[in-house]
Write a structure and sequence with these properties.
heterodimer, A: 521 residues, mainly alpha, 20 helices, B: 116 residues, Helix Hairpins, 3 helices
Amino acid sequence: MNWQAHLPALLLAVPLLGAFATPLFSLGGKTLRNAWFIVVSTFVFLIALALWHEVSVSGILVYVMGGENFALTLPSGMKYPVRIILEIDALSAFMVLAGSITSMAGAWFTLSYMDRFTGISRFISLYFLLTVGMLGMMVTGDLFNFFVFIEIASVASYGLVAFWRDKPQAVEASFKYMLLSQVAAMLVLLAVGFLYGKYNVLNMGALGSVMQMGLVEKFALAMLFSALALKCGAFPMYLWIPDAYAEAPASVSCLLVTVSQASLYGIFRVAFSVYGLSMTNSVVAWAMIVLGLLSMLIAVSMAVVQHEVKRLMSYHAISQTGYMLLGVGIGLLVLADPQALAEYGFTAIKGGVFHIFNHAMYKGLLFLTAGTLFYMTGTRDLNKMGGLIRKSPITATMFLIAAAAIAGLPPMNGYASKLLIYQSSFAIHPFITVVALVTSVLTLASFVKVFQTAFLGPEHKALVNAKKVPATMIIGMGMLTVAILLLTFFPTWALSNLVEPAAKALVDQAGYIAAIMGGAF
Amino acid sequence: MIIGNLPFLTVGILFLIGLLAILREKNMIKIAIGITIIESAVNMFLIVLGYRLGGDIPVHFLKGEVDAMVLPTPQALTLTAIVIALATSALMLSVIMLLFKHYGTLNVDEIRRLRG
């Protein structure tokens, strides 16, 4: 057994160790604590990179927790898996890579951004726990385990959103998020109970192999879908997102974007790998498309009128989530039809999946630049900013790159993924494409406004002694900028090596099941 | 049939009571109680799922004469869920405490600084 087989467990164990050892290291002073923070998050990124490489070379990885043999999913002639199994296919590896990059960039950014506050060792512990919850949701192959990781991520994020607890707004946002998120989590647990009561298995692959659509399954699917749609901030249940994202410290908002996308990954996993072809009608696919369209249009129109920079960006996060739901929903709609899938469905899935990665990078960068603006000026109100390009041209450049990417200007990476969605949604109905294009235009308009008011124009009187941007914050933002530029300059490489295996893994339900159940399926 | 399904009916009623409390109540403590009621309902659902009529404890060498055992997995799930519920309840109550310190009220209608 070679060491690569243990990568899935290491991916979760290393940040967990990071979380619980942080108070110990912070006894040794600030430098040691910060070094520990950076070393562990870099290490998590390296593990994610190795994992992604391993999956792209040798296919789906499984890891049986607590088993005598880590690769044996069905010990001693059992028909169904009984232990907790981590299952990493190309889609999970893809998500893990995106998540670990944002986590690392946020860690660098935190060093000087949070420097003036006390209680940073607790902040770092919670930050690592949030990372563990997010990565766990992406790699687990077990529905109940998925619920546990949702709760780990949720509890950590309640704490982080309310980290500035002397600010009433932050505590209020945390409470709002907590109410909605707890109800959603209980719905997930109820759905897990329904499925367990019917089939006596908790493993997603094993469930997929025996799934037959009936009333109980429909109930469970409805509960899972609505709960996870709430957690990822799709249209009717998005109200907690602007509050939580805007009130959290900037590096946490950057990570929360990817955490929400882990819930989105949960929807895709349930829809494709657990239910997949056993879904007899296209209600879920249409629900995804309609919710996607509504989130895109409504959230972007609310974003345009905002003058508080982080709230504005949070509304854009909701509207970008709509693109992913739309793209993957179109793929789900034609999943049972091989010809339509080959013609446009697969392109749509590729667009949706690629957009997840792009969004994690540029939205993370936008939140970090918003944090930099707050650090420099002490305000998040756009009306009180101006002329900041003279104070920090490098922040302005990075903001411009991220804004061009989110607005989908060619040749940025956001353009590549949006183009795939435009092309394929046209085959369903031209109206969908029109909505997507209008959203894109409104996004561009609102980011032009932000750039113009914050960076250009005469210097605001109150900002004469705006603070300089420290180096570690620039390093944190620089990492995400480099990722955006790499995706921009090598779109063909990214599509064929990153995105296409992930989209294929999403469609390939039989492969996901066979990795657990062996050749018996 | 009816008697056998009574526990599930109880679970449903409890869940609805909790949901109603979250939607209708104005006092934050009562809302928190609503959430814990929902959590208890879900836990009870899991336990009822695993119960077999006349079953004994699911430990091989401790069970008595009977052959049927209740399912152990839902009990393990419930234990995990109870621990999680405890953690979130504690956190929720401390957040409510902070909110009370800031606003001087427990009424959710008066805690509205975030808008738009």
